[in-house]
Amino acid sequence: MEMVAKQKLPQKILNYVLLIILTAVVLGPFLIGLWTSLLPTMDIAKGNFLSLHISLTNYVDAFQKTPILQYLGNSLWISTLTTIAQLIFCSMSAYAFVFLRFRGRKVLFILFLATMMLPFEAEIIPNFMTVKAMGLLNTYSAMIVPFLTSAFGTFMLRQSFLQMPDELKEAADIEGLGHFQFYWKIVMPYNRISLITLGAYGFLGAWNQYLWPMLTTFSNAFRPVQNGLRQLQSEETFNDWGMIQATAAIVVIPTLIVLFVGQHYFKSGMNEGAVK
Amino acid sequence: MLKSPATHSSTAPVTSDKAKSKAERSESGFWLNAKDKYYAWIFLGPSLLILGVFIFYPMFRTLYLSLFLTNTVGKPTVFVGLSNYINLLTSADYLSSLGVTMVYVLAVTVITIALGLILANYASKQLAGIGIFRTLFSATMGVSVSVAAIFWLFIFNPSTGFLALVSNWLHLPQINWLTDPGWAMLAVIITTVWMNLGFTFLILLGAMQSVPTTLYEAASIEGATPRYQLFHITIPMISPTLFFVSIITLIEGFKSFGLIDLMTKGGPTNATNMLVYRIYKDAFYSGNYAQASAESLILTVIIAIFTLIQFKVLEKRVNY
Hints:
Order of helices and strands of chain A: HHHHHHHHHHHHHH
Largest interface: A-B, 118 and 132 residues
CATH architecture of the domain at 67-221 and 256-273 in chain A: Orthogonal Bundle
Radius of gyration of chain A: 24 Å
Domain ABC transmembrane type-1 (chain A): 72-262
Mean pLDDT of chain A: 87
CATH architecture of chain B: Orthogonal Bundle
Family (chain A): Belongs to the binding-protein-dependent transport system permease family.
Distance between the termini of chain A: 14 Å
Helix content of chain B: 55-70%
Main location (chain A): membrane
CATH topology of chain B: MetI-like fold
Subcellular location (chain A): Cell membrane
Number of strands of chain A: 0
Strand content of chain A: under 5%
CATH class of the domain at 67-221 and 256-273 in chain A: Mainly Alpha
CATH topology of the domain at 67-221 and 256-273 in chain A: MetI-like fold
Strand content of chain B: under 5%
GO cellular component, one term (chain A): plasma membrane
Oligomer: heterodimer
Low-confidence stretches of chain B: 1-21, 24-30
Radius of gyration of chain B: 24 Å
Number of strands of chain B: 2
Distance between the termini of chain B: 33 Å
Number of helices of chain B: 14
Shape of chain B: globular
Shape of chain A: globular
């Protein structure tokens, strides 16, 4: 909603005050967490919240005493591979639905759409047994293979591919480009914004997985960061709050940076994908 | 929090008219290419395989298991028909889980939408530096479930937590947020709403910005107050988006697991024992795979219904 009329000064000040109050509410939990991550646990335990003994000791401890870097590395690896695979496989299936003419295409497409109704959370029992039977428990693969593709990604890219001008395909046919060349040299570069958007979704989706990695990993060597943080909490019998908050900050700060830098893409992607 | 749509989620993007006509034209079968069939296998093969193994097969397997009794490793033993379902739907314990989940989902959706509207409404004002506020309001999108849990576990901690400290200063009675059955649900709701807020805000802001300014100009000339404009122009104009966000929030709410596991473990005394947490416990702690399968199928039906409603309504809206 764009305010058209020029606002009067008191109104303006009131708006800023309200915006600042809302910011404080939204950012409060962050700020409390960040502040306590700088305090000695002793001070936190005594309720000495306004202590001025701030230092980065908790961060040094977190890096030295916990496998937080290993967790982050695991998550980075899992999320990167998942993202790359989704970009490839979703774009390939989207390509088939847009540029290939074959019998049963409509049925298959409805089948893809139907998978969006089926929550993965309700399929963990057979999936756990499948992964176990494949011998993949406690490996990176267990957390990557089920998510190599996604119906949502296929659907989103299909929408994007459908918007391509017909002339491109016609020109490619005249040039004698085969499907692989057209897919790789024309379709993929042309739809790079949608691909970046899907990549961001795929990455964050994998990064935020919780239930599935919890079922399929039991060692720090493979545990992603969400479950790693849980592990640290359950091991911290003496409630070292300062260090726990530091681990949370270590995890959240890079995500926030990526989010703020990449916000343009998220917004355009969301509008493209869902809301107009 | 960013929902994870890329991993088998339920979002229904919109088909544009142009895209639609193009899709239908090529669907009509003219120049059906014989060679394309082989390409189709190559291009679709990998995705079909993965969806088949990890989405379709498990659904049928879950249905199958739910009609049997199972042993401790989840192998079906005796066919029992629908009795797993009958047992569930007549068990006070399960019905309470269902009720608890409903309360949680409804509360989270209503509060998230209301707060998201307030944030988006203020962030859409034309003020210098508004971009900074927009960015800050969306910040919780970058917070993952375990980070949110840590922040809020500290805030709710009964001895050293932030709220305990504040109520000490103000001489208010202490609340055992996470161990008192009356309060634990509220604590989980607050945390979920906070996590959802950034995403909801961004979507609603985008919708508000696409409302034609001429509507507001006309209203201003007529002397309509900002409040009147919010309720009589903005909200009706963005109602499709409000609907979309509500459904997404509802569906995500039904699938909630992480925060429950991190904050309350379904407790105290089952006060937050929601559907997915229950499935997990029944299957992987109690080894009752058959019952957990029946629970999974009930969850699937609930989510499928909401997803279908979403598809239908969005379809209608797009095709008018």
